[in-house]
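Repro:
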Amino acid sequence: MRKTALIITILVSVAAITVHGQDSEFRRNLETKVDLFSDIWQSTPDALDAATINRGINIYSMYNFPIKNTALNFQIGAGIGIHNLYHENTLSKDDNGVTVFGAIPDTLADGSNTQVDNAKLSFGYLDVPLEFHIETESALRAAVGFKVGLLINSLSKYKGDDYTSDHAGTIKVKQKDLDNTNNLRYGPTLRLGYKWIDVFAYYSLAPVFEENKGPEMYPISVGISVVKF
C-alpha cells in the first residue's frame, strides 16, 4: 500500500511537470525546498541513550498561489521527509508485543569495551505540506504551515561489536518495516528567512510509535532550508 501510494505520487508529479513544463507561469510559481535539520526527540524513555545531533532531510516541490492584492501567498506541495534517531541501544519487543529499548552491554565477553560504530532508527515519510507565507520588498519572509505525512519506510540499523556472542568480531544488523509504528505523522511548521535561505522548524503532534505499543516519543526538527526557484 505504501509503495503503491509512492509510485502513484511520483507518476502524477512527472505527468504534471511534463504537461506544464513549457508553461512559464507554472515554472515561476514552482519552488523546490530542501530542509537540513536535526531532530530533538521528546518523551524518550529513560533506557534510551540518544545522540544530541540527529540529522534529517526534507525535499519538497511546492506550488505557489499568490493571493491577489496582498503580500500573502499560499503554497501546497509534496515531497519526502527522512528522520533519524542515533542511539546506543537494542530494539526489541517485550512479552506483550510492546516495542522497547534496552541497554547494550558496556563490555564484551573478553572484557574489552563495546564499540558501537552506528546504531539508529530511520523513518521515511511521503509528505503533503501546506504553507502561508509573506515576503517583503526587502526579500525578508516568514511562513507558517502544516504538513501531513504517510510512513513509507522504517528501519533499524546496528553496526559494531558483536555483543551477542562469546566470539570477538563485528556485526551488521538491519531490520526493515518496524512493528508498532504510526502510519501518519502531522504537525505545524515555521520558516523565517531572507531570499533563498530560511530557518526552519517542525513540531510533530504524533509519536512515531502507536499508543501503548511503544515509547510515545516524537521529534522537534530545527534547521535551515534552502529554496530553489
